[in-house]
Each structure stands twice: as C-alpha cells, then as structure tokens.
Amino acid sequence: MDLKIGQVRLFLILAILALALYIIEPFLITVILGAIVAYLLWPLHKRIMKYIGETPSSLILTLTTVIIVIGSIYYGINLLLEESANFYLFLSKLNIPYISPTTQEFARSITTKFISTLSEHILTIINIIAASVVFFISLFYFLKEGDIIYEKISKILPFEIKSRNRIVKNIKLHLDTFVHVQIVIGIVQGILAAIGFWIFGIPYPILAGFAAGIASILPIIGPYVIYIPVGIFAYASYGLTTALGIIIYGLSLGSIMDYLIRPFFYGKKVRMHPLVMFLGIFGGMKVMGFIGIVIGPIILSIAIALFKELKINNG
C-alpha cells in the first residue's frame, strides 16, 4: 500500500514538473539569455550597488539595456526607412520612361505587402513583445537576486560538497571566459568596423564603429544591426558598389569573428576540443537560432563538466 502511494506521489510530482516545463518552454531560451546578459553586467552591478543598493542598481542596468536594445533597433529601422524614402525620391526625379511608373507601382506594392504581412503575423509580433518583456524581467531579477539563485543552484546539485565546488568552479571558468572573449571580440569588431566605415567614406565612422562594437558584445543584437542599415545608407548616398563593399566587409568580419576567432580563443582558454566547440556553435544555432551561437557552447561545456564529475565520483 505504501509502495503504491509512493508511486502515485512520484508520478504526480513528475507530471507537475513536466507541466511546469511545458509552460515555461516557449521562454526558456529567453530566460537563459537574460541570465547570460546578467552575468555580463555582474561586475558593473557589484560596483554600482555599493553606492546605491542592489535594487536601484538592478533597475538602472536593466533600463540601460532596454534603451540600448530599443535604441539600436529604432536607429536601424529609422535609417532604413529614411534612406528608402530618399532612394524612392531619387528615382522619381529621374523622369526616365518606365522607371518612374514602375517605381511608384513597386512602392505601392511594397506598402500593401507590408500591411498584409503585418496583419498575418500579428501573433508573431505579440510573441516577440512577450519574449522581450520576459527577457528584461529575467535580467532584472537575475541581477537583483543573483547571489541567492547561485546558492540555491549550488545546493540542489546531486554531488558532495567537494564535487559541487569543482562543478561550480568549472562553470564559472566557462562563463568568465565567455565574458572576457565577448568583450575582446566587441572591441576588435568596433575598431575594424570604424576602419571599414572610414575607408568607405561613411560619416562619423568612429561613432558607427563604437555602435557596432557595443552591438557585438550583446548576444541579443550583434553587429549586423548596424552594417545592414549603413549599407542601405551607402547605397542611397554613394551607389551600389560602396553598399556591397560595406555589407560584404561587415558579413565577412562578423563571420570570421563568430565562427573562427571566438571559438579558437574560447576553446583554448577552457581547454575544450575545437570539434566540441564547433558542435556547440552550429548545434546551438540549429536548435535555438542565432542566439545558439552563444548559448550552445556554454551548455555543452556545463554538460562536459557534469560528465567529468560523474566519472570522478564513479571511479
């Protein structure tokens, strides 16, 4: 009788856990991303909270992240729309037979298509807004209660204290390495982007390079949010050759940094085999999308740390 009651209790617990996981599954990647960004901001958070306290520091850093993300997206969309309008006016003023009517028809069709697509994907837009809200709320609480969460996760690991400390130390090594590599890559991306913008004659190359560097540090954005609008601006202002040059330069630079330089330095620092590193990047990207480039290797590294500890404990 007691055995049956125990089995029923276990079944109910597992069923509730499965239901809970099913409920949070749509936002699981978003929450993980919030944790990663919180870890990126943690050193700055610890310094600020000494002067103004934990909650105000968490709130300020979260709002700053909101401003950076929304500002970057707004800047990119605004630049895209402005230069598209300028390009349309440029073509309309040419008064070349077939060009002007075709341009007007194209503009009308694009507008109609945009409105139609917007109405068809309203649910997707709502999901993106919901995911963004979850991300920023997660970021706030990971900053505010990071120490408490860290302690609780450490205690629920099913290992002895020594093993638990080794696992936590290993995970911390991987996360610290990620932060350092991310910052270095961001600085290099910003410098090379500024040089590229200067070569192609883009106005304010240092400011644009700085924006690209900041965008490349934050996993949620990436430098492409700067390169593509700048490329469109160059197309409207300088012509197709310059625009293609900037976009190819940006995509090539970003790809080399993301798929070669970043894995090399990350794998070398944490002594992870290059094959495992690349599996983490491309496997993560396949499962989670673009953000999997960041999350994939971290999850694999944690899994390897747990596997090594199990191997040590089992002799």
Show the helix and strand layout.
Layout: H1 2-24, H2 28-52, H3 54-92, H4 99-120, H5 122-144, H6 146-156, H7 161-199, H8 205-217, H9 224-237, H10 240-270, H11 274-288, H12 292-313
Overview of the structural elements:
- The chain has about 325 residues and is mainly α.
- The protein folds into two domains: about 25-155, no CATH class; about 160-315.
- The protein has helices at about 1-25, 30-50, 55-90, 100-120, 120-145, 145-155, 160-200, 205-215, 225-235, 240-270, 275-290, 290-315.
- The longest helix has about 40 residues, at about 55-90.
- The radius of gyration is 24 Å and the shape is globular.
Radius of gyration from the alpha-carbon trace, in angstroms: 24 Å
- Mean pLDDT equals 75
Unreliably modeled segments: none
Using DSSP, what is the number of strands?
0
Which term fits the overall shape? Answer: globular
Number of domains: 2
Strand composition percent:
under 5%
Per DSSP, the total helix count is 12
For the largest beta-sheet, the strand count, sense and barrel status come to: none
N- to C-terminal distance = 38 Å
Which structural class should the secondary elements be placed in?
mainly alpha
- Percent of residues in helices comes to over 70%
Order of helices and strands: HHHHHHHHHHHH
